[in-house]
Amino acid sequence: MTTSFSNLSLAEPLARAVAEMGYESMTPIQAQAIPVVLTGKDVMGAAQTGTGKTAAFSLPLLQRLLKHENSSTSPARHPVRALVLLPTRELADQVAQQIKLYAKYTQLRSAVVFGGMDMKPQTLELKRGVEVLVATPGRLLDHIEAKNAVLNQVEYVVLDEADRMLDIGFLPDLQRILSYLPKQRTTLLFSATFSPEIKRLAGSYLQDPVTVEVARSNATAENVEQHFYGVNEDNKRHALHQVLRQRGIRQAFVFVNSKLGCARLARALDRDGLKTAALHGDKSQDERLKALDAFKKGEVDLLVCTDVAARGLDIKDVPAVFNIDIPFNAEDYVHRIGRTGRAGASGLAVSFVGGSNDARLVADIEKLIKKKIEVEALEFDEDRPRGRINDGRRMYQREEGEGRGSAPDAGSAPGRERRPHRQPSASRDPFFDRPYEAQAVDSAPAWESAKAAAPARSISSNIKPKRKVAALFKAAQPTV
Ligand code: AMP
Fold first, then answer.
1. Are 121 and 158 contained in the same domain?
2. CA 112, CA 140: separation in Å to the nearest integer?
3. What residues line ligand 1, using a CB cutoff of 6 Å?
4. What is the pLDDT of residues 141-183, one digit of tens each?
5. Is 298 found in the same domain as 205?
6. 83 alpha-carbon distance from chain centroid
7. Spacing, Cα 98 to ligand 1 middle (Å)
8. 65 shares its domain with 97
9. Is 101 found in the same domain as 64?
10. pTM (2 decimals)?
11. Which of 1, 27, 34, 160 for mutating ligand 1's site (highest number of atoms within 8 Å of CB)?
12. What is the CATH number of the domain that holds 256?
């Protein structure tokens, strides 16, 4: 199979944009999917974020849309021809940015719409006319209802991160959106895993799809070093400091299972002296983008995230991923650790296994990734985590001789780096008590149940509907 872009006969404006991006050869998903999408066939692609799948579908789509390219200022000459649906705002934003880069030397217009932002600027853009519309389902429906988006000329629809869209409960929204599209169209579905639900979705909406698969589904990257440490719930934060220090890690993603846990952990780590930002569904879009940007610039050390908020974040070279909470869904483990070890770089994924609930969740992961998981013991050093000093280098100092709890050094420069760093004390902040959002839902595949019509946003973003019920039984006591 050819891996050079030059063998694809991409139109000159697209080839130029690709060359400008510095891509030397196609990634495996691109080498497999681009030729198929160029033929106009439906595709079911198993690929995680970070594999280059955005280019895998957007380059051939743009190529096929070039026949509609025109310089007219009339909105009627720029109807939506391709619709790309994604589960989260961040992901929609990232995909839209990539598409803009690929289309920059064409006259094809693209736009992105997602919730949490003012509708007006999005409306203006839609009214001017766009050929490629990237959207999250909820906000797209708002625009459809407001008659800002007309989809009767859509030729291509991409359901990206389809497994996550189902997890979040977007199925009813997707069904409505797909009902507005012409029957005669090409549908591309990308998903990290091909669960039975995804296969059912594909069965309903794709016609004779060609399956492209870059790695065994549910596989974890070979170049990610994975460790599972048995750590008491109360010591997990301390354990995080320990591994950061031992491995000399400067930046990491830290995953938790709930929004509340996310906010609390971020606050606690920040108090410990690490520059930390929280990324969860209750953060405004602006706050999320700022946190992401600060992390990319290296101004933030740790990004504490929930699964939904972190889904699809295009951040390269995150050296490590920590699972403070073992995810409720084994698939989320694969997604989480997919943030590290990208593009051949080596990565580290560390999971802290606490109570018996965690052991059950680890067993699920073991089954999914088909690898034996050894839970190791983590030996704690005498040293205590001391955070980052203000020359930008992280340094940990011994606790002795430092008036713990005393007033900050009067001579130190202002700023939080000079605060006296305290040893993390989990007992003061019991954020590890696993919270849950109690909304039992039907365990049948959502679209086969009458309850599927329930508004998507009523479903907890942290727990898959099916597993959520199980989680309720597993949690001994509701804690929040
Ligand atoms: P994606 O999986 O689409 O989110 O892409 C992940 C990252 O890989 C993005 O930053 C892309 O710009 C980059 N990328 C996509 N295709 C290639 C390629 N052929 N060579 C190098 N980088 C690429």
1. yes
2. 10
3. 23, 26-27, 30, 49-55, 314
4. 999 999 999 999 999 999 999 988 998 889 999 999 999 999 9
5. no
6. 20
7. 9
8. yes
9. yes
10. 0.58
11. 27
12. 3.40.50.300
